[in-house]
Each structure stands twice: as C-alpha cells, then as structure tokens.
Design goal:
alpha/beta, elongated, 2 domains, FAD/NAD(P)-binding domain, five-stranded parallel β-sheet, single chain, about 25% helix, seven-stranded mixed β-sheet
C-alpha cells in the first residue's frame, strides 16, 4: 500500500492551493475531490486578481491541470468516509467511498463548509440572484431593488448596512422575526422598509428573483438580494482526530494551519466554519502547505 507525505481532503481553493505548493515542494500528495464545492452554484467568482469573473468550475479546471504538471501529485475523485490514527506507526489511515485505504503522514482538512437557509426556496435563486457575500457579488447588483433576508438582529443590521453601500433601494425581510424599534427607526431614516411577516414564497424565473410573497398576502417586487445562511462543516473529521475547538466552534490553530492534533492541518473555511473569499482561502492553503512541508523537512533532516 502506498504511503503519502500528505493527503489533502477537499478540492476547493484552499485544498488546490495547498496541493500545488506541496507538489512544487516534491511531496507525494493526493487531493480528494468529490465535487461538492460550495461555490459550484455560483456563475462567476470575483475579487481574485487575474481571474476576475471566472466561473468556479473553470477556476477549478485550470487548477487541476496545473496540479497534473507535478509527478508526485495525484487526484482522487472520491469521498473520504473515515479517518483514523495509527498511533503505533504515527500515521493516518484514510478510507474512501470506493473502499480503498490510503496511508499518509500528514492530513490537510480543506473540506470547507455548507449553507443552511431560512427558506428552502432560496436554493432555487442562490448563486444567480440571491447571494451571501456583498464583496463577491455586490457590484453586479449595484443600484438594483434588493432584498435582505435574515432572521437574526445582528445579521440583519450587519448585512443591511453593508449592502447599502451598493444599493440604496433595499427592503429587509425578517421572516417573522421582530426587530427592535431603534433598528427599524434607523433603517426607516434611510428609507429602508422592513417586513417582519413570514415569507410564504419566492417568485422568479430560471433563478432570477422577481418578487417575495408574504404570508399576509403582499407580493413585493425585488430583482435580487442577499441572504444570511448558517454554516456547518459537512463532516466530523476534526472532532474524530481530536482537534481542539475554541468557544465559538472554530478549530484552534497556530495561525499557520497547524491544529492542536499532531499531523493534522487545516485551511480555508473549515477552520472557523465561516464564509471566506476565493483569494483568502487560496492564501490559507498556501500557508498551511508551507507549514506541512517545513514540518516534514524538520522530521526527516
């Protein structure tokens, strides 16, 4: 059975960037990709120098092609279903959905996060006319009549104030959540209307939002907007590998990708279970890979 220097679990920008750095460092590495990248529903990616407006799948295809230039790098189109520590040999055993077992010295967790929305209908519009990141998609929605859909006071205030930079034509939908009077007054002073009714349905065509129907019967015209989802890690690998967490649920690291569990590293959105940008996640991957390579170097020199 082959032994790898490092196995990268997750082929988002963090995992891809880390694998490239490790390949260039002549490390034997395989990256697992099961095609569940969170940005796969997005039509364009923004904020990454030289790749402005690129489709996420094209970005990924380019990265995969670059990885194939390095003979010590391999790509596994499988899902990791189990990770175990072989304490006797100080190695890790990884089992895939194809019932294969891989042995590795180091593991980089870059499996990212996934969204949960307050309304199931949001999925139909997410990535086309409803988004979660104004820095990523605010420019494309500038000056349009937009909706802010959120259910938590802190999230509502933060997102509304932020999006106001791109469009002054905003309406807040709290889906049954009551806002403090001061918040409502602050919004109304900026001519931002607030609907606290439960949302009955979203209407539109081919992912393009046209209106929001409320339980009260009102149907409010909107052509796009921003939502505040909750995020979760799609697996329990960090827990199973005894990584320590902070009080907010973030995985504790040294700031350079090393977790508190020896041999386990983290990069990208997985660390804090919070959304990030393409360019920041890629930088995280590069940083974690540098730590992995240095640790392997010191172990073997």
């Amino acid at each position: 059975m082959e032994k790898y220097d490092c196995i990268v679990i997750g082929a988002g920008p963090a995992g891809l960037s880390a694998t490239l750095t490790l390949g260039r460092a002549r490390r034997k590495v395989t990256i697992f990709d099961n095609g569940t990248n969170r940005n796969r529903v997005t039509q364009e990616s923004h904020g990454f120098l030289t790749r402005e407006g690129i489709k996420p799948q094209e970005f990924k295809n380019i990265a995969m092609k670059e990885l194939k230039s390095y003979p010590s790098v391999s790509i596994s189109n499988e899902t990791v279903i189990e990770v175990n520590k072989d304490d006797q040999n100080d190695l890790f055993l990884i089992k895939s959905s194809n019932n294969k077992t891989y042995i590795t010295e180091k593991i980089l967790l870059a499996t990212g996060i996934q969204e949960e929305f307050p309304l199931t209908q949001i999925r139909q519009y997410y990535g086309k006319s409803l988004f979660s990141c104004p820095y990523c998609d605010g420019w494309e929605l500038r000056d349009k009549p937009l909706a802010i859909i959120a259910e938590n006071d802190e999230h509502i205030i933060h997102m509304t104030k932020l999006v106001f930079n791109w469009s002054k034509d905003l309406i807040v939908f709290t889906n049954g959540h009551q806002l403090f009077n001061k918040v409502r007054n602050d919004f109304e002073s900026k001519k931002i209307k607030v609907y606290t009714d439960v949302i009955e349905d979203l209407h539109g065509d081919n992912g393009n939002l046209e209106s929001i129907e409320l339980e009260s019967g009102d149907n409010i015209l909107r052509s796009g907007g921003f939502v505040v989802p909750s995020f979760y890690r799609p697996n329990k690998f960090a827990e199973q590998l005894n990584c320590q967490f902070d009080k907010n649920g973030g995985i504790i690291t040294d700031g350079a990708g090393r977790t508190t569990a020896n041999g386990i590293y983290i990069a990208g959105e997985t660390e804090k279970a919070e959304s990030s940008s393409l360019i920041i996640a890629s930088a995280d991957g590069n940083k974690a890979a540098s730590s992995i390579n240095m640790d392997i170097t010191l172990d073997r020199f």
